[in-house]
Amino acid sequence: MMIKNEVLEKAKICVTGLIDNNLKVIITESCTAGLMSFVISCIPGASKVLSCSFVVYSNYAKSKILGINMDMIDKYGAVSPEVSLLMATCALKASEADISISITGFAGPSNNICEKVGLVYIGYAISELESEYKKCYFQNMNRYEIQMSSVDFALDFLLYKIRQLK
């Protein structure tokens, strides 16, 4: 599977924007399993801006690595606005980064009718008090397309936030 040139170009613009603004990013991923971090790392200069990345695929990892209370995961679900924000803020606290991005969602396929395949939340934080999320719903896509679309959207969101911080 190849990464589209448009996605790599967006990653390059994000890396350049982070470098120009002397910012570092931390990325915490669930359903994309490190894909966004990989895409960023493909860009020369990424080592100047990518502070750290976490892949917290399981609820246990979200709790153990990030310190998210299991009661919160049980209450809201791992794929929820609340958990996407907790992923972003908890990761930020554990790093030297200025910006945190998180991705959680259902990439599918699934036999569980409660899971909405294609539902993804992108979390963002620059502090515990300043965080935001975006809800995406990618329909009629396979697993890889959902993952790549999530990364593409997260890069757009990151770029938007970098430009706001100028």
Automatic annotation (TrEMBL):
Q: Which domain of life is it from?
A: Bacteria
Quote the Pfam families the UniProt record gives. Answer: CinA
InterPro entries per UniProt: CinA-like_C (IPR036653), CinA_C (IPR008136)
Q: Which Gene3D superfamilies match?
A: CinA-like
Domain called CinA C-terminal: residue spans:
11-159
Indicate the secretion signal residues.
none
Q: Which NCBIfam families match?
A: PncC_domain
What is the protein's given name? CinA C-terminal domain-containing protein
Q: Cite the source lineage.
A: Bacteria, Pseudomonadati, Pseudomonadota, Alphaproteobacteria, Rickettsiales
